[in-house]
Each structure stands twice: as C-alpha cells, then as structure tokens.
Amino acid sequence: MDLWLDTDPGFDDWMAWLLMESVPGWRLHGVSVVAGNAPLETTLGNALRIKSLHGLATPVYAGCDRPLAQPQVTAQDVLGIDGMASTGRRLDVPPAAVSAGHGVTALIDAVRANPGRITLLAVGPLTNVATAFLLAPDLPGLLKSLVIMGGSTVGGNATAAAEFNIHADPEAAAQVFGSGTTVRMFGLNICKQLRVGDAHVQRLRAAGSDEAGVMGDYLDGYVDIGRRQGRTAQSLYDPTPVIYLAHPGRFELRMGRVDIELSGRHTRGMTVCDLRGPALARANAMVAMEATRGPELVDWAMERLAARLAR
Ligand code: BDR
Ligand code: CA
After folding, report:
1. How far is the CA of 275 from the centre of ligand 2 (A)?
2. How far is it, in rounded angstroms, from Cα 189 to Cα 186?
3. I need a labelling partner for 292 at 20 to 30 A (CA). Which of 96, 210, 242, 309 fits?
4. What does DSSP assign to residue 102?
5. Is pLDDT at 87 greater than 80 in this prediction?
6. Buried b vs exposed e over 92-102: b needs ≥16 C-beta within 10 Å?
7. What number does the ligand 1 atom closest to the CA of 79 have?
8. Is a pLDDT exceeding 90 seen at residue 245?
9. Does ligand 1 have an atom closer than 6 angstroms to the CB of 37?
C-alpha cells in the first residue's frame, strides 16, 4: 500500500506514524506536518525527533502554520507545552533534517506522481489537505482514498460539539468534506472502541530497547489523560484509522453526508452526520461506526510496535 501521512505530533500521531512504518508491504512516501496539538514549530520539532529516534528514512516536510480562517488553537492545555502528553520525559535526541519544500507542495507532487495509488491519512487539523485541494483541484480525484481521524457522531472533546482536529480548522474541514472525494471518517465514536491502558504501557516497555522505554513512558503519559478523568484507559485516536487500513474487514463504515458546522454559537466545528437513507443522494463520507473485537485490534497494533521497537 502506498501512503502519505499528514500529522501534528502529538503522541498518538507518533504511534500512528510508527505503526505505518511497521506493516510489511506498506510504503510511506512522506509526512507533512501541520500546526495542531501545538504550534508548527513544536509539532515539526517533535516529528523530526521521532524520525531521528527511530532512524526513519521517510521525508518530513513543514506544512501550514495556521488555520485557513480562524485564530490558532492548540491542545497544549491538555497535552502540555510539547503537545505530547509527556509526564516529565523529553525526546532528547537531536532532530533529523527537515526536507526541502513545503509540505503541501510535496503532497501534491507525490500524489500526481502516483495517480490513483496513494492513500492519504490525515490525523491533524485539515489545513494542509484543504490547501492542497485548493491549489490542485485535480488532487481529490487522484487519490486512492482519503482517511481521516477527526469528527464525531457523538459529541466533541475540544468543545461539547466539536472534535479537536475539526475544531482547530473548521473551514479546512468544510473544504475537504466538500471536495468531491469520499472522506473515510474515523471520529471519537469509533476511537472509543479501541483503548489503551497500563497493560499496553507494560507491553511496549517489555520490548526492551531504549526506544521502547521512551515510547512506553510517553504512552504512560497518554494513558494518564484518561486516568486524570477517572478512566483506566484512553481512546487510541490517530492509530485507529491505521489499524483500519490493515484490517478493513473488522470495521463497519456507513455511507452518509457529513457537513461541518461553521456558524453555530455552541456547535462550530461539529461534524453533522446524516446517516439516514435519504442522505445517500448527497453522500460525501463513509463514517466508521463499529469495530469488531476492538481490544484484539489494539493488541495487534501493540505487537507490531513492540516488534519494531525491539529491533
Ligand atoms: C485528535 O486530536 C489530537 O489531540 C490527537 O492527536 C488526535 O488527532 C483527537 O481528537
Ligand atoms: Ca493528531
């Protein structure tokens, strides 16, 4: 499978990325970084340290540093200044070099060079993807598929109505959902079915290497987000669509219409999901609804990561 990752690392972004690098037969053409969990300078720095820590060859490009229309928001209030939910641990490796060129241009070039082949996975605010679609209107039609972590059928996390990636750039999300391509949406509702907890932290640490120790500590910080809210486990956000790409038969996706609320006083950034039959005439999305035996799927992802980290 040929892939491109658009991301705002973010610890769960890191897991999604490393998982993509760990599935046999998959080829990740590039990573474009966007502002989201933290300002671009920070998410890019995180990406370049992740690349360095794991010795990854995939080129990393700097993308857009602010939303299309609204003032910037980040998730640093929840995830800390580095946007990585670290509990004291720092990624203290020297950063790898950033690749030349803008992330949006690199994405456009990669898709045009591989027409009909690239699956674009976007796990941050959709600013880079929307900008690519605005600059290259042929792009949606040249993708194999577009898969996102974002949105929700059941209420938000950034606000009562909006999931963070949509909340951080609603105009970009509206552009992407209106692009004419079918968006495969993995929102909060499906990610709640794939959770990580203490056993997964132990599993990563048990891989034994320094890399595994670092990642295990960060996973502990990520699980802590849930612990602080009285839960023993935390939704596995960005890796969930990666798991779907490896196990498509284990997910039920429903065809429907998703519109982005842009003007609601209490609901801006909401993904309004019309999954009634009549919406099919205007369908623009496949919305992930159910995962079969979610805990097994999480175990699969952890085993893949542990095997990669033990090398
Ligand atoms: C999404 O927001 C970010 O904080 C995570 O990385 C994920 O992409 C979950 O709402
Ligand atoms: Ca993310």
Report:
1. 25
2. 8
3. 309
4. B
5. no
6. ebebbebbeeb
7. 4
8. yes
9. yes
Tell whether ligand 1 has an atom less than 6 A from the beta carbon of residue 164.
Answer: yes
Q: Where are the domains of the chain?
A: 2-309
Angle, to 10 degrees, between the axis of helix 11-20 and the axis of helix 40-54? Answer: 40
Q: Is 165 in the pocket of ligand 1 (CB under 6 A)?
A: yes
Q: Do you find a cis peptide bond into 294, omega within 30 degrees of 0?
A: no
Question: Tens of pLDDT along 219-240?
Answer: 999 999 888 889 889 999 999 9
Nearest atom in ligand 1 to the alpha carbon of residue 235 is 9
Distance 62 CA to ligand 2 centre (A): 15
User: Does ligand 1 have an atom closer than 6 angstroms to the CB of 222?
Assistant: no
SS3 for 147?
strand
In single-letter form, the type of residue at position 49 comes to R
CB of 13 closer than 6 angstroms to any ligand 1 atom: yes
Pick the CATH number of 2-309 from 3.40.630.30, 3.30.565.10, 3.90.245.10, 1.20.1440.230: 3.90.245.10
Average confidence (pLDDT) over 185-214 = 96
- Give, in degrees to the nearest 5, the angle at Cα 91 between 147 and 229: 65
- Summarised one tens digit per residue, pLDDT across range 169-184 is 999 999 999 999 999 9
Question: How many whole angstroms separate alpha carbon 241 and alpha carbon 297?
Answer: 11
Tens of pLDDT along 252-302?
Answer: 999 999 999 999 999 999 999 999 987 788 999 999 999 999 999 999 999
Q: For residue range 144-174, list pLDDT tens digits in order.
A: 999 999 999 999 999 999 999 999 999 999 9
For residue 224, give both structure tokens. 């802590």
Report the length, in residues, of the chain: 311
Tell me, in angstroms, the distance from the centre of ligand 1 to residue 10's CA.
7
CA of 237 to the centre of ligand 1 (A): 6
CA-nearest residue, atom 6 of ligand 1: 10
